[in-house]
Write a structure and sequence with these properties.
CATH superfamily of one domain: Nucleosome assembly protein
Radius of gyration: 31 Å
Oligomer: single chain
Organism: Chlamydomonas schloesseri
Helix content: 40-55%
Largest sheet: 4 strands, antiparallel
Strand order of the largest sheet: 1-2-3-4
InterPro entries: NAP-like_sf, NAP_family
CATH architecture of one domain: 2-Layer Sandwich
Family: Belongs to the nucleosome assembly protein (NAP) family.
CATH class of one domain: Alpha Beta
GO biological process, one term: nucleosome assembly
Low-confidence stretches: 230-241, 261-301
Pfam families: NAP
Number of strands: 4
């Protein structure tokens, strides 16, 4: 049995081996020995890689934005056609908003009474999309609560990420202005329309997010799930030609078809997106008259 090397001999071998090893050479476990003087060089190389990635990400964002702008233009005629159908449905927007799970517990009876006169709800992105959007409410001339035909609330996104809110101004008729502290009308939704502060935690604005991202893309989803007492329909001042019975069912099917068309006009782009759009819109953008009628309606009939 051979004798074990003395501790003195081991120490000499270690010193000799250390002298022959490059500080940057891989260790026995495969990892490189860290040389402090190389830190600045490696940091500079990593920063250069990050700048290259940021450049590509910016280019990708610009391309996505351009595609979204293109398809927003294609969606507008379908939205216009949908709005024309909706105006034939009594209390459509009242029922839709009251049926949303987030808004249902917030809207007051006074809100509901005003919503009976809401003819159109529109969410319009600004031209460059990323700078913000606005919510536009259009009311019946028979509205007894205020004199405004339209209410507009805008959300502007700054480059620093800050959101600037431009609220609506409501000119209430006598007896309808909010005075809950003295037993007068109490509003949630219409108070929200008039305030410049964000509502909700963790989002730019909870109500705006619900309108823009949930209700606006597919209001029929909430309308069909909602319930309005029959008396509300009887009391509403309905224009001639509003749908009921089998015609109402056909209208609902038409709205669902329009919703499917909107989903087809998405960011996928290319021939598939264009084909789906043309299918939903009949003859394409040319098939929609400026007033939302004409050939566009015939294509969906």
């Amino acid at each position: 049995m051979s004798a074990e090397p003395s501790p003195k001999r081991l120490k000499v071998d270690d010193e000799e081996g250390a002298e022959g090893v490059d500080a940057g050479a891989p260790a026995e476990n495969g990892a490189a020995e860290w040389a402090p003087e190389a830190e600045d060089t490696l940091a500079a190389e990593l920063e250069e890689c990050q700048r290259a990635l940021d450049k590509v990400n910016d280019e990708a964002s610009d391309r996505v934005l351009a595609v979204e702008q293109e398809y927003n233009k294609k969606r507008r005629p379908i939205y216009a056609q949908r709005a024309e159908i909706i105006q034939k449905v009594p209390l459509f927007w009242q029922r839709t908003l009251l049926s949303h799970p987030t808004l249902a517990d917030q809207l007051t009876d006074d809100d509901s009474q005003v919503l009976e006169y809401l003819m159109e709800l529109d969410v319009v992105d600004f031209d460059d999309i990323k700078s913000g959007f606005k919510v536009v409410l259009t009311f019946s001339p028979n509205n007894t609560h205020f004199t405004d035909k339209q209410l507009v609330k805008s959300f502007h996104y700054g480059d620093d990420g800050k959101v600037t809110i431009e609220p609506a101004v409501i000119h209430w008729n006598e007896g309808y202005a909010p005075f809950p502290e003295s037993g007068g009308p109490s509003y949630y939704f219409f108070e929200w329309m008039t305030i410049a502060e964000a509502v909700g935690e963790g989002t730019p604005d909870e109500v705006a997010e619900v309108l823009k991202d949930e209700i606006w893309p597919n209001p029929v989803k909430y309308f069909l799930n909602g319930e309005i007492e029959p008396a509300a329909y009887e009391q509403a001042e309905l224009d001639e030609g509003l749908l009921e019975g089998e015609e109402f069912d056909e209208m609902a099917a038409g709205l669902e078809d329009a919703g499917e068309g909107e989903e087809g006009v998405g960011l996928e782009g290319g021939e598939e997106g264009d084909a789906l759009y043309e299918e939903a819109a009949g003859e394409g953008e040319e098939g929609f008259a400026d007033d939302g009628g004409g050939e566009g309606e015939e294509g969906d009939a």
